[in-house]
Specification:
single chain, about 210 residues, 8 helices, five-stranded parallel sheet, alpha/beta, globular
């Protein structure tokens, strides 16, 4: 490897390490009073729905929505009846079902509305957010909150400029990256609780790709 290529690889590794450190730091701080760790909330809520044979729905918008879809895919791999809100094959939510909704800033108009409909249908609502104090419709509908303490697109990044990390992920990327890590940890814990092996999970992966 040439000197220039080696320097480029080192710079890339350093940048990746800084980004991973920022995401990892989200999970180092103990949650504030009244908010249990988000991992425990998700594992407990999803396990309860699975034990009761109920369906799990997920919803989010933008890049948050992509993270929710990734979680839904893994829940299906675990053998759970998991659905993305808005898909044409999603069934109606009913009493005892579970809705996992993400709203980093605390609420979005569409997320607020979906949470309200799920609540009115008898489903249990779990809100994943970085702003649990927001007085949104989603927060008012939530039976439980998975608090992910990090910045979102709604935060004033200009005000925080230069206060902490040398490299700052843009807009809501830190929250979205934290969601990916949180969901992977939840899937690992759920696989243990539901006694699902990697082979069993792989057997449920689509072959139409």
């Amino acid at each position: 490897m040439s000197g220039r290529a080696s320097a480029s690889a080192s710079a890339t590794a350093a940048l990746a390490a800084q980004i991973c450190a920022q995401i990892g730091a989200v999970f180092f701080s103990p949650p504030p009073p009244g908010f249990p760790p988000p991992l425990g909330v998700l594992v407990s809520e999803i396990s309860a729905a699975a034990s009761a044979g109920r369906r799990v729905f997920v919803h989010g918008v933008g890049r948050e929505g992509l993270m929710m879809k990734a979680l839904c895919m893994r829940l299906a791999h675990l053998g759970l009846p998991a659905h993305v809100v808005g898909d044409v094959t999603a069934p109606p939510a009913a009493t005892g079902d579970l809705l996992l909704a993400s709203a980093g800033p605390g609420g979005f108009s569409t997320v607020d509305a979906i949470c309200g409909v799920a609540k009115a249908s008898g489903a249990r609502v779990v809100l994943i957010t970085a702003q649990p104090a927001a007085g949104s419709g989603a927060r008012r509908s939530a039976d439980a909150v998975a608090y992910v303490p990090t910045r979102t697109m709604a935060d004033d990044e200009a005000e925080e400029e230069g206060k902490d990390a040398a490299v700052r992920l843009p807009m809501g990327s830190l929250y979205e990256g934290a969601l990916y890590v949180l969901f992977e940890m939840a899937v690992m814990r759920l696989a243990e609780e539901l006694k699902q092996s990697p082979a069993q999970m792989r057997s449920r992966h689509t072959n139409l790709e």
